Amino acid sequence: MRQGSTVAGLDSGTPLYSGKALWLLDTENPVRLFCYRVCTSAVFENLMLAVILASCLTMTLESPRVAPDSSLGHGLYVSELVFTALFGLEMLVKVLALGFVPYIRHWQNAIDCVVVITAVLELSVGGLRWF
User: Where is the chain membrane-spanning (predicted)?
Assistant: First the structure.
């Protein structure tokens, strides 16, 4: 399969690039094909838009005045964990489907990657909330 061609049977305009994704999965690998079908589906796209909206809504509740040991503070921390996991899973599915370099070449994905890495760093190291 040449670079930029799509997989037969899929109606998406998103190309499945030739070569191996993460130096492991070629274009005929069932895991890669599954990830490609998932990340190019309208259901996945709409689900991720709903997750983004829900994440934005919970961010409006965050404030320096919210005590971390309060029920709201605990709920916001748990929601941050859940949203980071969901956005990380989205990134993983897209990287497995497209490969890292083709994934990161799209500016929306590059922004998503920075957001996921920053969220993971903030959760693991702490002190990056200002970022």
Answer: 42-61, 81-103
